[in-house]
């Protein structure tokens, strides 16, 4: 057996160990779909509170449509107008349920939002006793979840 063959045989267990270790690290560090969805809401709320329209719309699918006739572009324009008149936006939310399919997910969420318009401050979503109940449909584009539809739960 030559030097090269011995090196390959000795290196094989080490290479296998490295592959297993890297796989384990990737499994531990790679976020689950549920973690990604929770991050989507956390970052979206942060963008809304800071009135960062571009960051907020980066959470919305270009395929967005809802029962109110809003598409991606009309939603963006409506939010732009709201950000012009509202300030000091504060959002409280609770993810109540996440149901994940392969490339779609449905999230039930309760939301309260307070904002200031001029000198008046008040609830714009939900109220002190009852959050607004929403059903949010998501679609997975590559490894990223995006909002495809939002509807109010009656």
Shape type = elongated
Low-pLDDT segments, ≥5 res = none
Number of DSSP strand runs: 5
Largest sheet: 5 strands, antiparallel
In terms of topology, how is this protein built?
Elements: H1 3-29, H2 33-49, H3 53-57, H4 72-85, E1 87-100, E2 104-117, E3 120-125, E4 132-141, E5 144-152
Antiparallel strand pairs: 1-2, 2-3, 2-4, 4-5
What does this structure look like?
There is one protein chain. This protein folds into 2 domains: 1-30; 32-152, Roll (Nuclear Transport Factor 2, Chain: A), CATH 3.10.450.50. The model has no long low-confidence stretch (mean pLDDT 89). The chain is an alpha+beta fold and 154 residues long. It is elongated. The protein has 4 helices and 5 strands. Strands 1, 2, 3, 4 and 5 form a 5-stranded antiparallel beta sheet that branches.
What's the quick description here?
The protein is an alpha+beta fold.
List keywords for this structure.
154 residues, alpha+beta, Nuclear Transport Factor 2, Chain: A, 2 domains, five-stranded antiparallel sheet, 4 helices, elongated
């Amino acid at each position: 057996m030559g030097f090269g063959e011995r090196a390959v045989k000795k290196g094989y267990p080490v290479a296998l160990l490295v592959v297993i270790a890297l796989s384990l690290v990737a499994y531990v560090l790679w976020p689950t779909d549920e973690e990604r969805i929770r991050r989507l809401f956390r970052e979206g709320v942060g963008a809304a509170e800071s009135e960062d329209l571009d960051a907020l719309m980066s959470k919305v699918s270009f395929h967005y449509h809802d029962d109110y006739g809003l598409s991606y572009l009309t939603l963006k324009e409506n939010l732009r107008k709201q950000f012009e008149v509202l300030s000091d936006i504060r959002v409280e939310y609770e993810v109540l349920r996440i149901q994940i399919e392969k490339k779609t997910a449905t999230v039930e969420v309760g939301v309260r939002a307070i904002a200031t318009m001029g000198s008046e401050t008040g609830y714009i979503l939900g109220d002190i006793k009852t959050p607004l109940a929403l059903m949010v449909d998501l679609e997975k584009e590559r490894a990223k979840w995006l909002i495809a539809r939002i509807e109010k739960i009656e």
